[in-house]
Specification:
The chain is α+β, with helices and mostly antiparallel strands. The chain has three domains: 7-93, no CATH class; 98-179, Bifunctional DNA primase/polymerase domain (Prim-pol fold, 2-Layer Sandwich), CATH 3.30.2250.10; 190-283, no CATH class. 35% of the residues lie in helices and 13% in strands. It has helices at residues 7-20, 74-77, 80-88, 109-118, 173-176, 209-224, 230-245, 253-265, 270-283, and strands at 25-29, 33-34, 91-94, 101-106, 123-126, 131-136, 142-146, 149-152, 158-159. The chain starts with 6 loop residues before the first helix and ends with a helix.
Length: 286
């Protein structure tokens, strides 16, 4: 007798190997959306912290708060609350930024044509209406960077549709540039440095690129020379960098990538780097 398809088992058979490879996963319900908040967090009773822009991973017992619930922990994935969610799930999603990835979501044929003409080739995954182009490296997630094009990386989730085809390439500046809002024409800053407006609207104190470069180099050296307490060193270094350089807008994804590379060379995982950076921003109210 043929047994009915066990969708829960199918999704778990997909999710567990992904988690074991370092890709944070979460179940999606009908409509390709995350599960609603658990009873403890219903009606924003928890204060909404895991839903805040810069919050860290969800600490709830179930797959609560969207992307923040994504995990690589098999004990969590197989826990009773999560098993009930998998039983109702219609798909598996993952947190690209937590896996050190960026997904360029191309929603139609026009967007695909534009990508082929303007972006470096990389791993490609077919979707219902278009394609996911997957690059190695995280960045800020932004929707509608151009018609039919979304960027999904940190603080976002993407549906897992398979490994795709082609060779994954490093995140190019052409993709990073899509997330940068073009500023109004301004007079160049001293020494030719164009200073972007920071989230906090603070005046830039750097004056020259050398000040920021020296700060990043010192941070890289501090991480590299650490002989113990690597987790704490990475967090404190990220906190110091953001405190000094993170409010005026001069700190870029390229600087963040340098710090993440130094941390990973000391054995830190991409997920821990992302968490440490996010927690440092949260601590500073950024």
């Amino acid at each position: 007798m043929t047994q009915p398809t066990d969708l829960r088992g199918e999704h778990l058979r997909t999710a567990l190997p992904l988690a074991a490879s370092g890709v944070p996963v979460l179940p999606l319900r009908a409509g390709k959306v995350p599960f609603g908040n658990c009873r403890r967090c219903a009606d924003n009773a928890c204060g909404g912290r895991p839903n805040m822009k810069n919050a860290g991973p969800c600490a709830c017992p179930g797959p609560c708060h969207g992307w923040a619930a994504a995990t690589t922990d098999p004990d969590v994935i197989l826990s009773g609350v999560w098993r009930r969610a998998w039983a109702r799930a219609t798909a598996v999603a993952y947190h690209p930024g937590g896996a050190w990835l960026t997904v360029v979501d191309l929603d139609n044929t026009d967007a695909i044509t534009w990508a082929r003409e303007n972006l470096p080739a990389t791993q490609t995954v077919p979707t219902t209406r278009g394609e996911h182009w997957v690059y190695l490296g995280p960045m800020r997630s932004v929707n509608a960077v151009r018609p039919g094009v979304d960027i999904k990386s940190t603080m976002a989730y993407a549906r897992w549709l398979g490994p795709g085809t082609g060779t994954m390439t490093g995140l190019p500046e052409a993709v990073r540039a899509l997330a940068v809002k073009q500023p109004s024409p301004v007079q160049p800053a001293p020494h030719g440095l164009t200073v972007p407006a920071g989230a906090g609207g603070e005046e830039c104190r750097h004056r020259t690129p050398a000040y920021l470069e020296r700060g990043i180099a010192m941070a890289e050296q501090r991480i590299t020379e650490a002989t113990s307490g690597i987790h704490a060193t990475v967090y404190r270094t990220f906190l110091a960098v953001l405190s000094t350089h993170g409010r005026c807008g001069c700190l870029t994804d390229a600087h963040m990538a340098r710090l993440f590379t130094a941390a990973q060379a000391k054995g830190e995982s991409p997920r821990h780097c992302t968490d440490a950076w996010t927690n440092a921003r949260t601590a500073l109210g950024m």
